Each structure stands twice: as structure tokens, then as C-alpha cells.
């Protein structure tokens, strides 16, 4: 057993939504890795965050987990793929949290949210990776002072450190994600780049 698997086993917890997890595995729906999810929920618990904006709903797996930390939390979530969006809505209804969810079937790059600036406790970016910078610039003003911004998949399953990518689209995506990562590293924000799951970037807005 290697160190990575050892830690993964220690972090393993009871899956709250096994049917959704199994569906994601069977249909190759990208969802947050278990290690990264554990850290995300731990950060929410420690910070007391109650109001979340999620960029990239997919089938509602991570959104349900966000809502599971506190019973009085509220989720705003955006998904542009209608098939995913419909499944997510069904999952929110199945687990009876639909009254705590404000879901948008729209493109997060162009959607104009009617919420106040600095009204969110947490921004979770988990959509098209090449748009991380755009999503950060567009939605970070909605996060209150001392709030959290979390970005998933900053390692691109190892592509971020691969200098020999032949596929042009993958190479362009790697360049965009690498640029965003470096921009955040050089910024005035407090940042932590964590080699957990597929890479988790934790940003404190202060």
C-alpha cells in the first residue's frame, strides 16, 4: 500500500448518497473525489459557511454534500447541460432539499445573478476548467470578506505537470489552468494548493 492509498483509507467515510455516487461511476459523470470532498465539508464546518454558490451542478452530488453539513444552509447552483440539470433537480427533490436550492439552467459565463455582492459564504468552482479565471473574476465579488473560494481539479489528472501533451485542446486547457493557478499564487489572496483528490485550491477572501 502506498502513502496516498493509506491516507485515502483513513479519510474514507460513509457515503451519504450511494445511489448518486454509483450512477456517476456507471455513467462516467465527473464528481469531486472523496478526499477533496472531505476537506471541502470540513472547511465548511470550521468556517460556519451557510450560503454557497456552486459553478457546475452536474447531477447534484456535491451540492447535496454541501447542504448536508448544516440543516439551515442554502445552495445556489448553475449548470448549463440540461440532461445533468434535470437529474440534479430530481436528486434534490428525492432528498427533500429542493426548498434550500436555487438552481439555474444557464451558462455561468454569461448568467447575471440577482444577488448582492459579498452575500455568499462560499464559492465552489467545479465547471469547465479552462474558465476558472473567468469564473473567479465574475463571481468572487459575491463572496463576503473572510469567505472561502474553493476550486476543484487544479491538477487536471496529472496533465498540469505534463510537458509533452500532444492533443491541442488538452494542451490549451492545461495552459489556461496553469495560468490561473500561477495568477492565484501571485495574488494578494491567502491561497493553499492542496494535492488532494485531483487538486484543491483553497482561497480566503480577506
Plain-language structure description:
Keywords: Methyltransferase, S-adenosyl-L-methionine, Transferase. One of its GO terms (molecular function) is O-methyltransferase activity. InterPro entries: Cation-dep_OMT, SAM-dependent_MTases_sf, SAM_O-MeTrfase. It holds the Pfam family Methyltransf_3. This protein is α/β, with parallel strands linked by helices and about 210 residues long. It has one domain (about 5-205): Vaccinia Virus protein VP39 (Rossmann fold), CATH 3.40.50. The protein contains seven helices and seven strands. The protein has helices at about 5-10, 20-25, 35-45, 60-70, 80-95, 130-140, 170-185, and strands spanning about 50-55, 75-80, 100-105, 120-125, 145-150, 190-195, 200-205. It has a seven-stranded mixed β-sheet, sandwiched between helices. A hairpin with a 5-residue loop joins β6 and β7 (about 200-205). α3 packs parallel to α4. The protein is globular, with a radius of gyration of 16 Å. The mean pLDDT is about 95.
